[in-house]
Fold this protein.
Amino acid sequence: MSMSMSLGQSLRQEQKLEMQLTQEQRLMLTQHTFSLRLALIGALRDEQYEPKARCPSCNHALTPIEIINGFNQDPRDFTTSCPKCQHRFAPSIISFGNGSSIELPFFCSAQALDQLRGKHLMTPAELSRHHPAVYRSAIVHHGTITKAFNALSVEYPFAEISDWRNKARPFLGRLSDRVIAECVEVSVKTITKMRDELGIQRYQWCKALAKLKAPKRREG
């Protein structure tokens, strides 16, 4: 008599398989997951974010992951490193919202945290208006301003996101429950319950990878 695997057994099996991924497959998944996470963070705030960096030395257009990996995590160093030629230069982030866009400096996590010090009594709207680059860099790296201030051992007293259930719903099953929970500041159990009630299967990296590797259909 066969028995179906428990969720715990299934997760452990996935983890074992994940260890066998090639470096190229890991990078593909990492970039895909980061792009979706970035889309979720933006959707929660009715904006879109696009980290941008083109090396002035070799003209290589860096991916967001390459930009982040190139940071030195030094509050005094505002540059990233080109993975092709190792030239260092300052990246930017484009914020789209309300029919307009603005290009801002993109800071590493250490820089964003350093510049957030002493600003915990500013609301999210005030931070966004008066310190737009710091605000957007912080939420890209940490998911929320609350988590960014937590990294500084500071309690942030303001609510950040309204109507998160409707805004997060399109990402259920496309991102792990943990990632979504971190971005909306609720427990993983809350996201899992919501997803189960909607009949959406949990995120599985193997299925995500299979979709990424599948040839795209040509239209027309």
